[in-house]
Amino acid sequence: MNANLFARLRPALAADPARPVMNWRGSWITAGEILDRAGRIAAHLRDLGLEPGDRIAVQVEKSPENVALYLGALQAGAIYLPLNTGYTLSELDYFIGDAEPRVIVCDPAKEPGLAPIAEKAGARLTTLDAEGRGRLADGADAAGPAPEISAATDDDIAAILYTSGTTGRSKGAMLSHGNLWSNARALIEAWEFTADDVLIHALPIFHTHGLFVALNVTFATGARLHFLPKFDADEVLRLMPESTVMMGVPTFYSRLLAHPGLTREATSRMRLFISGSAPLLAETHRAFTDRTGQAILERYGMTETGMNISNPLHGERRPGAVGLPLPGVEVRITDDEGRPLPPGETGNIEIRGPNVFKGYWRMPEKTASEFRPDGFFITGDLGTMSEDGYFTIVGRAKDLIISGGYNVYPKEVEDVLNALPGVAESAVIGVPHADFGEAVVAAIVLEPGADATEIEDAVRAATGESLAAYKRPKKIVFTDAFPRNTMGKVQKNLLRETCRDLFSDPT
Ligand code: MLC
Ligand code: AMP
Description:
Layout: H1 5-14, E1 20-24, E2 27-30, H2 31-47, E3 55-59, H3 64-75, E4 79-82, H4 89-99, E5 103-106, H5 111-121, E6 124-127, H6 135-142, E7 157-163, E8 171-176, H7 177-191, E9 198-201, H8 208-221, E10 224-227, H9 233-239, E11 245-248, H10 250-257, E12 272-275, H11 282-292, E13 297-302, E14 306-310, E15 324-325, E16 330-334, E17 347-352, E18 359-360, H12 364-369, E19 377-385, E20 391-396, E21 401-403, E22 406-408, H13 410-418, E23 423-433, E24 437-446, H14 452-466, E25 475-478, H15 492-499
Parallel strand pairs: 1-10, 3-4, 3-5, 5-6, 9-10, 9-11, 11-12, 12-13, 24-25
Antiparallel strand pairs: 1-2, 7-8, 8-18, 13-14, 14-15, 16-17, 17-19, 19-20, 21-22, 23-24
Helix pairs in contact: 1-8, 2-3, 2-6, 4-5, 7-8, 10-11
This protein binds malonyl-coenzyme A and adenosine monophosphate.
């Protein structure tokens, strides 16, 4: 049997082609229309020279055509490589040079800048805009019949998602068809997704959460979705009476709580609110229950593994905890040698299961260093398990900031700052922020004689040029020296303490 993820998602869509499944700006798109577009795009990608196993890099705005591109790429046997729409050309240069895609799909506005990068990589460049128009769509319109679904095994790679690293160099996590399908099935079972569900989809579709968790689960079950270009609290509240489930990052929930329209009545038709990608504060969880009578279901995952742990659909959804291992997923807490620790003790969170990725693209040594000999993947997150089996994330061994659900590795930002004349050294930290959970802050030690105002301008110019907006420091603080431990390492925890009220409301 063909293990291509598309072959597994297709049956529920093909069962009733006339069924409206995706609401985009007030119009419903049918299952048959989505499959038709995916097939045409698959045919066009083949015309462009794309062969099974080739990478296709995609940096386009969210649209139904972008979804069809994802499905069409799978159908054609390509390895789908989605890229955050906020990435700058210098970030794209690295991803494209590393992944060597056969085809790149970009917004027409990015084409002039990307053309030399594509040429260097030997890739074909084509376009798709936010309205779903461009050379890719034209090519699909003119394409011949859809190709057969490309044959794949569970172990073949379906997608590569880049995830930043503590060294500042991003790594491409290779996810197989089997990884993605096993995780979709585990979530369908745990959250009891059915064709009766209607999902509010307000997440971007270039990350695991909005792409795999939300779309694979929806398509596999024949559920429907309200597909929004981005999160908008007014729009989400307007759609709640005709929806059953929402998946979001904690910022969605804090923004909803700040909206007077969030009431028991407004949410009464919803059966499930899911949160993940960043820690949900227990106080947000409780405030949401007080306002709506509904307990948010928090779950825990990551790019390399998909979803691992989830609070139960039936049973206690514990504020501050991420719940119990998903079906088929093994979770353990270990010491630094990988020895399991008893309940109540804090250690490394390690994962094993059919959801765990195949390794980092062209980085065998890095891959090997993140697995234990018995196959457990070391997540870099720290946690604890209670006597009754609930897991809680208590911190991160990796130096990582999560801002509004996006990951920022300080090293990448520090490298940009340290290269500026006048900066003696820098330390980038995450500081509590009511909207984004954590916000990026740069602490800088100036070289003697350097002017702080000039450096602020230089930082804004340099980060604006080379880093996506969510990675840029929201505030810069200057200090004479950093606190250091006896090994000379900057004590970021102490810096964070000093800066903890930077974003607090003075009132
Ligand atoms: C936008 N900005 C951010 C930001 N998002 N800054 C920091 N962190 C973020 N997350 C910038 C904008 O560029 C803008 O900058 C300014 O902040 C204000 O933007 P905004 O209009 O308030 O932001 P908005 O467009 O509403 O976006 C906020 C958001 C969005 C939270 C809705 O970031 C979002 O959809 N996040 C979801 C991320 C996600 O899907 N994560 C899943 C990863 S998968 P300027 O300079 O223009 O003013 C994963 C695995 C798992 O983690 O377990 O799921
Ligand atoms: P990413 O690499 O973008 O997939 O981000 C994955 C990281 O997000 C994990 O390693 C965790 O640090 C974090 N994360 C995801 N879900 C949660 C959660 N529910 N609570 C705390 N952290 C989370």
